[in-house]
Design brief:
Belongs to the cytidine and deoxycytidylate deaminase family. ADAT2 subfamily. GO terms for molecular function: tRNA-specific adenosine-34 deaminase activity; zinc ion binding. By secondary structure, this protein is of the alpha/beta class. The protein has one domain (3-161): Cytidine Deaminase, domain 2, CATH 3.40.140.10. The chain has helices spanning 3-21, 55-67, 85-94, 135-161; strands at residues 28-33, 36-42, 75-81, 98-103, 128-131. The protein has a five-stranded mixed beta sheet with strand order 2-1-3-4-5. Helix 2 runs parallel beside helix 3. The termini are far apart.
């Protein structure tokens, strides 16, 4: 991990803040080519009513448009949370050279935590992986979001049981 990785992960964390502001799981991603941003994204599955609108997918789509090719050779994808299997598969198909992520995802991570799609010898492309860049900040971002969500859910249930809210509210 070098200062460049830290700088780009900080950029991804700012994108994660955009997701959180929209009520989305706070994950941000940025695709970098020759030290320039060519694509960025943040989770927008709820906003766009699209199960594929993960931060990584949106960043890869934008990078492909900006580069003019779906093959994103010699690029690095920075993302605040370890990619899921869908996003890892898209990275393999896009030929991303390097993945740098912050927090590990012990439930659905596909870059080594649960699955290892990124470095799978049966596939036609493998990416270098750097895990744990700003892991503490990235992990706390996700944890804080879900803590708030659980608190809101408890409050809502309490209000419903006391008659302050109807089930339809």
């Amino acid at each position: 991990m070098d200062n460049t990785d830290i700088d780009w992960m900080n950029h991804a964390l700012l994108l994660a803040d955009k997701a959180e502001a929209q009520g989305e799981v706070p994950v941000g991603a940025v695709v970098v080519y020759q030290d320039e941003v060519v694509g960025e994204g943040w989770n927008q599955t709820i906003t766009l009513n699209d199960a594929t609108a993960h931060a990584e997918i949106l960043a890869l789509r934008e990078a492909g448009k900006n580069i003019g090719n779906y093959r994103l050779l010699d690029t690095t994808l920075y993302v605040t949370l370890e990619p899921c299997s869908m996003c890892a598969g898209a990275m393999v198909h896009a030929r991303v050279k390097r993945l740098v992520y912050g927090a590990s995802d012990l439930k659905t991570g596909a870059a080594g935590s649960v699955f290892n799609i990124i470095d799978c010898e049966q596939l036609n492309h493998r990416a270098e992986v750097e895990a744990g860049v700003l892991a503490e900040q990235c992990s706390e971002n996700i944890s804080r979001f879900f803590r708030k969500r659980r608190e809101q859910h408890k409050l809502r249930k309490k209000q419903q049981s006391s008659g302050l809210l109807s089930d339809a509210d």
